[in-house]
Amino acid sequence: MKGRKPLLLGILTGVVLLAVAGAWFFSANAWQNRELDAVGRNEIASNGAVQGVLYPGNPLREARIVEAEDKRLVYVRTVAAAARWRVEGLNGAYRLNTGTVNTLVLPAREVPWTVSDLLILAPQSFVQQPDGSFLLSENIAVLAGATLSFEAPEGIRVRLKSDDESFVSVVALGGSLAIGGSESSKAEIRSWDTAADGPDTETRDGRAYVRVIGGNATFSHADFSDLGFWSGNTGGLALTGTDTVSMFTPSPAAAESGPQPGAPLLPNTEVTTLSIVADDYSLVTAGIDDVTVTGNAYGIFVTNAEDVLIADTTITGSLVDGLALHRGVSDAVIRRTTSSGNNVDGFSLDRSSTGVVYSDVTAEDNGRNGISLDGQALADGPNAVGTGTREFGGNTVRGSTIAGNERYGIEVSGGERLRVVDNTVERNEVGVVVNEGATHVTIEDNTFTAQVAQSVAVRDGSADTEVTDNRIIGGDTGVYVRNADAQVTRNTMTSISNHGITLVGNMRDTYVAANSVAGYGSKAIWTKDSVFATVEKNELLDWHPAVTVASVVNSVFQPLTFVWLLLATLLIASAVTRTRRLRVRTIGSPYPERVPLTSLSKGIVRFDGTRETS
Predict the structure, then answer these.
(1) Are 431 and 478 contacting, i.e. CB atoms less than 8 angstroms apart?
(2) What residues does 76 pair with on adjacent strands?
(3) Of 206, 579, 600, 609, whose CB count within 10 A is highest?
């Protein structure tokens, strides 16, 4: 029993080592097949699961200010309707008392309202500064049929007063707003804190903004900076249509308190009672060219718009998204535009938007995704307002560069007929993600380089996704498909470190063929965790499984290898035990009593006393 203890100890040690190595191997393999799922949408507030950089303002206070701004604009519309319907002979501008800051209303006329007009209409609130800029210290509202022009070849600099006491805005209420300079001398619109003699960078007390509602915006060769707070509508540079064709307008009593003939500049106008009638404007249109937007809450916010063109524009440092196309945007073209260093997404396209093309854009170093495309239905069943359940799509990203974003390069969430073609996607956590049941998505002829996890991930109910003719260089996994249907064909993958293609779950209509997969990971095409996929005729000659601890343990965990290793352990343990028990002995003669006499002496002794040696 005493001799068996070392033997049993050796056996137990070997078994324990094998078990520990096996557990490590299987857990490591599971980690290698991970995918990065969302942990919650960005709520722009302290919710504990925020993605991107947390909004720095005061949610409660800023939301109240947004509500107050909405009420002010309703009031301005109300009085404008009263002036149009109830007052004859009123053709000029007028001023309304709207709380801390008055609002100068510019009604319809054939020629645009210009800087020269403002210097006459508002000599105390539109003042030229010693450096040549203009300081605006009251709100401006541009009504339907009117145009406010801040355009000049030599450029014009307008500073919108914005401090801890109040802020101003320029809002086109169905009218048009034109802002522009030249290539050599750009127009400039920015918030301005007179006490600090610099831009307003604090959003907690509101901040100056520019907005076009249901009219037309023309911005070219212009810079917008440090504008807006909290919501998209007040986000800095907002182009917003109305999603309904109704508005508040005054009762007869309210109309009587509106502007009077011969008094175009009126303080202290009040409206007390409101009713609802039809409005005469809804969608907004816009052309934006050679514009720089820096440090806004939302760089550019667009909703309920059509025929929007944004070209050669740069958006940086937004507190939320760079360019946000929110709802109801159709037939928009975004080209040669860069959105970088924004706290959340570089470009975002929300539900109910169709026919949007991103061409030659750059989205890099953003806090969440480079480009987010959400085509999901607005409702999934009966609802209080009767919203439809159809999905949206027909949107395209092509010829663009998406690099270095913290989460995904491009995320496609639901929708149909979406194309991601001929793009360069580099150094994102995941290159392109298709999820939320998106259908008929084409990911073709893109170059993916050095994604951290997967270059392409197709997940959870997405169907008819084509991943074809892409070049994938580096990264953990080339193409990842989970519980979705995809055709993965003719892709070239090199320097992959884990799996070229990973298939997980049920994928009855998934087809993988004609791909060239090269790398040094554990397995070129991983199918162990999937069912029903068709995999055939892929080029794997340049795939070389890496010699790692995992691969060594994997080879050990073959049945025959395990048996031989166990036997070897037993033999070694037995040999070590027996060696310790052996003692050093001298080999003797089996017949000691018959030893020759000569072996007991050094020679023959003669009788004469001499010795003869041999």
Answers:
(1) no
(2) none
(3) 206
Q: Which of 383, 381, 380, 323 shows the shortest CA–CA distance to 353?
A: 323
402 vs 407, 418, 429, CA distance in Å?
11, 17, 12
Exposure on the CB side of residue 159, measured as CA atoms within 13 A: 19
Q: What is the structure's pLDDT at 270? A: 38
* Rounded distance between C-alpha atoms, residue 10 and residue 8, angstroms: 5
> How many Å apart are CA 189 and CA 191, to the nearest integer?
7
Structure tokens that stand for 205 in this block:
């007390």
Single pTM value for the model: 0.80
Report pLDDT digits (tens) over 462-519.
999 999 999 999 999 999 999 999 999 999 999 999 999 999 999 889 999 999 999 9
Q: Please, which residues have CB within 8 angstroms of residue 592's CB and are 6 or more apart in sequence? A: none
| Percentage helix, strand, coil for the chain under 3-state DSSP, each rounded to 5 | 15, 35, 45
Convert 161-200 to b/e letters by CB count within 10 Å (16 or more is b): bbbeebbbbbbbbbbbbbbbbeeeebbbbbbbbeeeeebb
In which region does residue 360 sit, left (phi positive, over 0), alpha (psi from -120 to 50) or beta (all else)? left
Q: Are 310 and 300 in contact (CB under 8 A)?
A: yes
Distances (CA, A) of 324 to 14, 226, 420, 469, 519: 61, 17, 19, 30, 39
For residue 234, CA distances in Å to 168, 227, 237, 265, 350 come to: 11, 9, 8, 26, 18
CA distances from 374 to 54, 95, 136, 614 (A): 21, 42, 38, 110
pLDDT tens figures, 243-264: 543 333 343 343 344 443 333 4
Dist CA 577 CA 7 (whole Å) = 6
The answer to whether 351 and 412 are in contact (CB under 8 A) is: no
469 and 493 Cβ atoms separated by less than 8 Å:
no
Task: With a cut of 90, say whether residue 183 has pLDDT above it.
Answer: yes
Q: Give the helix/strand (H/E) hosting 506.
A: strand 499-506
Distances (CA, A) of 416 to 354, 378, 463, 539: 10, 14, 10, 31
Residue with tokens 């916010």: 301
Instruction: Assess contact for 434 and 410: CB atoms under 8 A.
Output: no
294 bridge partner residues: 225, 316
Instruction: For residue 174, give the DSSP letter.
Output: B
Q: How far is it, in rounded angstroms, from Cα 145 to Cα 109? A: 6
Rg (CA), the chain: 39
What does the block give as tokens for 106? 């510019």
